[in-house]
Write a structure and sequence with these properties.
There is one protein chain. The chain has 75 residues and is mainly β. 8% of the residues lie in helices and 37% in strands. It is built from one helix and six strands, in the order ββββββα. It has one helix spanning 69-74, and strands spanning 3-5, 8-15, 18-23, 25-28, 35-39, 46-47. The strands form two sheets. Strands 1, 2, 3 and 6 form a four-stranded antiparallel β-sheet that branches. The longest helix has 6 residues, at 69-74. It is globular, with a radius of gyration of 13 Å. It starts with a strand and ends with a helix.
Length: 75
């Protein structure tokens, strides 16, 4: 889930049980509804997918699933 502010595009990432803002470099794709994240995240980052605008930096996080994005696609 990519958001934007004055500084650029960012994702909310869970680190030490709290949300942190991590700026990412994005690129458009052929599909108008898809954004490719080119850099800024690590494989070990736990990306938050807040379903509303209430996901703020510093909020506590929980882990609903421990599978990586690749595992979710394959299984």
């Amino acid at each position: 889930y990519v958001r934007k502010d004055k500084k650029g595009s960012y994702c909310l990432v869970s680190r030490k049980g709290r949300l942190e803002k991590v700026y990412v470099e994005t690129q458009k794709t052929m599909d108008p509804g898809t954004i490719l994240i080119v850099s800024g995240l690590k494989n070990s980052d736990l990306i938050a997918f807040p379903y509303s605008k209430t996901g703020y930096v510093g909020n506590k996080t929980t882990r609903k699933s421990q599978r990586s994005i690749v595992e979710r696609i394959l299984y």
